[in-house]
Amino acid sequence: MQPIDLNTTIEISRAALVDLDASFLFQLGLFIVVALLLNQIIFKPLMKIEELRDQKTEKVYRDADKMDRDSKKAIADYEQQIADARRSGLENSQKTREAATAEGQSRVDASRTESDKRYNEALKRLELADAAAASDRARQSAALAKEIADKIVGAA
C-alpha cells in the first residue's frame, strides 16, 4: 500500500464538490417542472381517490352504526311485543280461569238450590205421607180397637 500524500487528498475532496453552473439550474428547473406535473397528474388524483375512499369508508361505518341501532331497536320492539303478548295471554288466561270459576260456582249454587228445593219437596212429601200414614194408622187402630171391643163385648 502506498501512503497517501496531502495533494491527493485535496484532489479527492475537490472532485466531490458540485459545480454550480447552468446545468445545475437546468436540472433544478426540470426537477420542479416534473414535481409539478407529477403533483397534478399523480399525487392530487391519488389524494382525491384516498379522500373519496375515506368518505365512502366513513359512510359505510355510519350506515353500519345506523343498521346496528335499527336492529337493536327492532330487537327491543320485538321483545316488548313478546312481553306484551305474554302479559295479554296471562291476563286472558286469568280472566278465563276467573270466568270458569264463576261459572262453576254459579252451577254449584244452582245445583245446591235445586237439590235444596228437591230435598224440601221430598221432606214435605214424607211429612205428608207420614201424616197420612199416622192418620191412617189412627183410623185403622180406632177401627181395630172397635172391632176388638165388639168381639170382647160380643163374646161376653
Description:
The chain is an all-alpha fold and 156 residues long. It has one domain. It is built from two helices and no strands. The relative contact order is 0.02.
Q: Give me the Rg, rounded.
A: 63 Å
| Structural classification | mainly alpha
The count of DSSP E runs of length 2 or more, i.e. the number of strands, is 0
Strand content: under 5%
- Contiguous uncertain segments of 5+ residues: none
In brief:
This protein has 156 residues and is an all-alpha fold.
Task: Describe the SSE topology.
Elements: H1 6-15, H2 22-155
Question: Which terms summarize this structure?
Answer:
mainly alpha; 2 helices; 92% helix; 156 residues
